[in-house]
Amino acid sequence: MAYCRPSLSVETPTIHLGGKEHIIQTGCGSVSVNVYGDQEKQPLITYPDLALNHLSCFQALFFCHDAASLLLQNFCIYHITPPGHEVGAAPICMDDPVLSIEDLSDQILVVLNHFRLGSVMCMGAMAGAYVLTQFAIKYSERVTGLILISPICRAPSWNEWFYNKFMSNLLYYYGISDLLKELLIHRYFSKEICGNINLEVPEKDIVRACRKLLNERESINVWRFLQAISRRRDITEDLKSLECRTIIFVGDSSPFHIEALHMNANLGKTCSALVEVHACGSMVTEEQPHAMLIPLDTFLMGYEWYKPYRFMGIPRSPLGPRLVDPELLYPEKMGLKLRPIKTRVSPLRPRTQKS
Q1: Domains in the chain and their CATH numbers?
Q2: DSSP secondary structure string, 107-150?
Q3: Cα–chain center distance at 226
């Protein structure tokens, strides 16, 4: 599988993944926020999945030159990390109350107020997508759009509840064990890149890197985030009140594939688009970040502040800002040699006018 290689350009800013870390105190504990880019630009906040931070959840997207340049040309990036998931985090005291999803979304509001940010673009993956969607529902005036990767919106099914309970026991009694890492790896990635010992197929570098980063997590901190995810409520009905534009990316091998389809079908008055990526797991940002380029570019064209970026070797879309032609999302239309990308729904559905 081909990956985008990082390169330098005199026309675009150099990418520094670390950025500048800020520790923000909230009423529900401290939050780590890594900021990089021009703070005069439109803010984009990110929130990762369980046991991940921005280095392990969004790194490949920001290593892909065109994707990073597209985002940095238009945004200042604020990577918000779940409590205790930042690099070098100490174990959170067992006596501290376990935060709910509502608490985590309220922390985001404190972060925005700390940096004096108005309305922001949001990018979240899996559990992080749920947290940001909850934030957008509760504080709609603070969100201009949602970029969701393999999102979830319903309460856990019995299968997921059992799966989470098993992981919770592993974390509590055995820490970040090899078995737990395997469960998380298959949560994030497709079987195509996870490898197979019996067939002597080696796992890809991106999986090995993620496995190494998981070793750095404190098990009690991951356990606490997992408790919040497991206690989440069904927000399907609330989705109908969302007014911000939304784009959903999901791999067709993701365990959250059905959930993403359900969420897209229930986005009421918003303009929304669904991009399904073939032979890809949940973390499209890591496994196939190149598949996000043209859909993101077209999605962002609907905003007045958006400055188009000329992709290297990729033709610009002639489409209007509120239309995403499904044909555009096939590789022969993108000028790239990619695995097929497909869509099941019609492109950006126009928002209905309020009476």
Answers
A1: 20-342 (3.40.50.1820)
A2: HHHHHHHHTT--SEEEEEETHHHHHHHHHHHHTGGGEEEEEEES
A3: 17
CB within 8 A of 136, min separation 6: which ones? 122, 142, 143, 146, 242, 244
Reduce the DSSP state of residue 166 to 3 states and report it: helix
Q: How many CA atoms lie within 13 A of 194 on its CB side?
A: 20
Residues in the chain where the model's pLDDT stays below 70: 1-18, 197-201, 269-270, 311-355
The answer to whether 340 touches 329, Cβ cutoff 8 Å, is no
Residue 205 CA, distance from chain mean position: 20
The CA distance from 83 to 248, in Å, is 25
Cα separation, 48 vs 200, in Å, equals 31
CA distance 13 to 24: 26
- As given in the structure block, the two tokens for residue 107 are 């922390």
pLDDT digits (tens, 9 = 90+) for 267-312: 976 688 999 999 999 999 999 999 999 999 999 998 999 988 776 5
Q: What share of the chain is helix, strand, coil (3-state, %, to 5)?
A: 40, 15, 45
Angle between helices 178-188 and 205-214 (to 10 degrees): 130
**Tokens of residue 10, six digits:** 């005199």
116: left (phi over 0), alpha (psi -120 to 50) or beta: left
Residue 165, SS3?
Answer: helix
3-state class (DSSP) for residue 184: helix
How many whole angstroms separate alpha carbon 77 and alpha carbon 69?
Answer: 12
In whole angstroms, what is the distance from residue 143 CA to residue 108 CA? 11
Give residue 268's pLDDT: 74
Residues 328/334, Cβ–Cβ less than 8 Å: yes
- Helix (H/G/I), strand (E/B), else coil: 226: helix
